[in-house]
Every structure is written in C-alpha cells, then in structure tokens.
Amino acid sequence: MQLPYTLLLSLLPLARAHFLLNSPPTIGFSDDDEGDYPCGSFDASSRTTVTNFPSGGIPISLTSTHPQVTYFYRVALLNDTNAWVDLHQPIAQVGQGKFCSQDVPGLAAWEGQDAVLQIAASAPDGWLFQCSAVKFVSGAATGPGSDCTNASSIKVSYVDEKLILNAQTTTIISGSSQPTQSVAGGSSTTQPASSSSTMGTPGAAASTQVGGLAILGTIIGTIGFFFF
Ligand SMILES: [Cu+2]
C-alpha cells in the first residue's frame, strides 16, 4: 500500500524524533544530538525566545515517540545551568504521542530571575534533553494553549524518584531514598528503577498537580491515571 506523500510527511517528525518539547518553545531540537546534556546539544544560555513562567504555572506539552518514557521536569538559574532543581514530580508515560501538564507551577522563590527549564527524558535508548529559556514571574497560571492536548492512547503516572543528573553524575534515588544507579557523564542508557513500584500516594495532590485532565480509571496494581 502506498501512503499519500502528504501523509508520509506528517508522519516524519514522529517517526524520527525521540521526544519533542512543544511548549514552551524549545531552545533547539536535533534528533541526532538530543542525548547531549544539558540541552540536546543546544546552548543552555540561549535567550532567543524567553517564556515568562508565572508562579501559577504554565502548560508543558511534550510528544513521545517511544512506547514508554519518564519525564523529569527541572529548572536551573541562567547563571548556574549545572544545578538543577526539580520543578514537578517525574511522570512516566506509556504509549506514544502528546502529553501536556496544564499548569506546572513556577518557583516563587525565583521570581524575577532568568532560568532554564529542562525536560530530561529517560527513554529506552537513553537520556534525552530539551530546554526552554524562561523567566520566573509572579502571577496566575497562563492556562493551556491550543497545543496542550493529550493523545488518547497514552497513560501517565507519577513516579516517586529523584533525579540527580548533571555534568558529573547521573543518579536516581527512589522513594526509599536509596540510590538505585550511579554512572558518570549524564549519558546513561539505563532506565529509572521500578517506576511502577515506587510511586507516591495517590489522590488530591497528584491530580491537582496535573490539573484539569480527566481521570478515567486506575491502573491495576499501581497508582496511575488515564488521561485524554
Ligand atoms: Cu529515542
């Protein structure tokens, strides 16, 4: 069967990309070099497009082309882009396609400061990075944009893990506060440990963080949600 040329074109980005940061705007995307810490081979200090990041939150829209991926949401001050701070609990996505967190809260303590948002993704083929230039500001959530949508086939769940990943080290600390892996270089190809068995408690806190997404059901044996 031959696919129409236009359809083939529309499939190309999904077929090739590891993952995409749709919103806020990425500093840069290179499929071949997305594994290069800290920003997928692009300059972390680039300020070409700066997104105001109110304490109330912004939507963060991602597209995964992998059957599973874990996203870590991190920020660093512009003058220290090797010191990353968790912005949001990591999220494991099963299934390919778009996932959008509608209101990821900003950091009130950093209001007025220039910073870099980094999405570090643990994918089957290794760590991948996308960054966005942001400035923390006061104010209410900006609300979801038109690209803040979710693929119907995905399911996502929170992961109770803390990632320490910089130019010197890559370590994941699970909910039990025990390091589960430690490798040098920030380019490990290992997966985070037991994302399904180390999740935090379900309920209001989790659903509030993602905010506005409909919860359809609970994943058997673990704590998770279906989003659409
Ligand atoms: Cu990939």
UniProtKB/TrEMBL annotation:
Compositionally biased region (Polar residues): 175-186
Signal peptide (UniProt feature, chain positions): 1-17
Start and end residues of each Copper acquisition factor BIM1-like domain: 17-152
Protein name per UniProt: Copper acquisition factor BIM1-like domain-containing protein
Low complexity compositional bias, start-end: 187-198
Membrane topology: Lipid-anchor; GPI-anchor
Native source species: Drechslerella dactyloides (Nematode-trapping fungus)
One protein family per Pfam: BIM1-like_dom
Keywords: Cell membrane, Glycoprotein, GPI-anchor, Lipoprotein, Membrane, Signal
One cellular component term from this protein's GO annotations in UniProt: plasma membrane
Annotated region described as Disordered, given as residue ranges: 175-202
Cellular compartments annotated: Cell membrane
InterPro entries: BIM1-like, BIM1-like_dom
